[in-house]
Amino acid sequence: MDKGKKRLLIFIIVYSVVALFAIFPRLGSLPLREWDESRNAANAYEMYDGGDLLVTTFDHNPDLWNTKPPFVIWIQALCFSLFGVSEATVRLVSAVAMFLTGIILIFLGHKLNRPLAGFYSAILVVCSKGLLFYHAGRSGDYDSTMIMFIVLYSALFYLFLHSGKTKYMFFFFIALSFAVLTKGIQSLIPLPVFLVFLLYKRKLACALKSGQTYAGLLIFLILVGGFYISREIAQEGYLKAVWNNEIGGRYATVVENHAGEPSFYFKVLKDNIIPYFFWIFPFAFVFNLFTKNSTSRDLSLFTGITALFYFVIISSAKTKLEWYALPMVPFMLVVIALSFETIHLFIAKRKKTIFKVLPFVLFVLFAYKPYAEIVKHVTASKEGEDFKGYYSSVVVMKQIAENEVRLNNINYIKEEFGQLHFFYYYWMQDSGIEVGKKHLNELKEGDTVQVNRPDTMEIIKERFEYEELYSFIQARIIKLGKTKT
Question: Which of 65, 92, 58, 63 is nearest to 78 (CA)?
Fold first, then answer.
């Protein structure tokens, strides 16, 4: 094994150990979050349980509230088949995608002969809490997988710019296809920057003359175009829903009250997503412009401008959500890592052994605090006090599904039953529990019922005698007795 491959293997091993403790511990410790994650889980279970592979469903009806393509849902359904139904399997695809994002960055550094930059950027990924907390690498949402494919297609595109090898354009379109099949239009935002760099690096003619470019583009059109056309044929009105939800709706108008001031993403990045690294990015970007190494300078320019362009586009949209900023973070981290590599090489070129080790020690000291905070958060992974009552209903449903609370049958009240409960309802069915849903006025003597709201409990008290079988915070399991006259 040559020196470069040996170093690559060492970096992958070290990164894997570091990432293991930041990404994977206790994936199923918290209940699924309301809205996207819980809906995805319900979509995936219905697909796993004999549903349509093309048309995602919710409550066994075609889902037009969630118009994203089904790639993540496919993988989640596959995980149910392989590993069983649980919250951890819902989230596993995102965790693996975030892990692979770091691996892609390491390989990019290796291919460009900037191995330290690849390694440092991968480590910074697992030190960025925004990439590992809500709606990202430890959540059953689309964003982590989309980020992985965006990083992959960007790396492949840059390798084409750097080397001129058109095989990278072919694989660029393959990765781009899966990015779109993960989260639709959002995954295409960086592409205008790519066109500018094709012109800037004088590689447009090279790309247009290559058969591999057209082969990749053809596959993109077949995969992406084939999906959207097939979905519209299977469910008329789907393309209109995509337009209203993903393009015209979210960009031009405020959807579901998710508004924000122009500085929304600036504050989110600075305070929540990469608080330790945010202010380093602009200084690193300027610093890299003056580095002697042309590869570092050009890669920093490419990733830095892509991040800034992405920032401008999402900031100009009317609908604003914190996780919309996540895809730009790896680009920012590459810029920072390139500056660290330059400093590392400057220190390490001295002959004494201590100067070979010192840059690694300094980087460990730099990354330790954000990494330690993430590890502490994910290993503890406790529900916040403000949310314990709200999520107590599904905690009890999980306890029944896992046979911690032993019941053969139970009913749920339709007036209380929301999107959050569907996955757990299916999980209980999958565990062999006989479950049903009834309106309040359909309850009768002998029913075992889970009651999740105090106001509902007051109505039941007025109508029935009952025996309480189990309670957890505000969720109660009761057996109904005689009706009150």
Answer: 92
Whole-Å CA distances, 405 to 29, 209, 390, 421, 478: 17, 66, 19, 17, 13
Please state, in angstroms and rounded to a whole number, the distance separating the CA atoms of residues 105 and 111: 10
Between helix 143-163 and helix 87-111 the angle, nearest 10°, is 10
Residue spans per domain, the chain:
3-380, 385-483
Listing DSSP states for 178-216 in one string gives HHHHHHGGGGGTTHHHHHHHHHHTT-HHHHHH-HHHHHH
Bridge-based pairing of strands 448-451 and 475-483 is antiparallel
- Tell me which of 3.90.25, 3.40.50, 1.10.10, 3.90.1150 is the CATH number of domain 385-483: 3.90.25
Angstrom distances, CA of residue 196 to CA of 45, 149, 191, 202: 43, 21, 9, 10
Look up residue 216 and give its amino acid.
G
Averaged pLDDT, 287-302? 95
Question: pLDDT grade, residue 119 (50/70/90)?
Answer: very high
Tens of pLDDT, residues 129-179:
999 987 899 999 999 999 999 999 999 999 999 999 999 999 999 999 999
- pTM value? 0.95
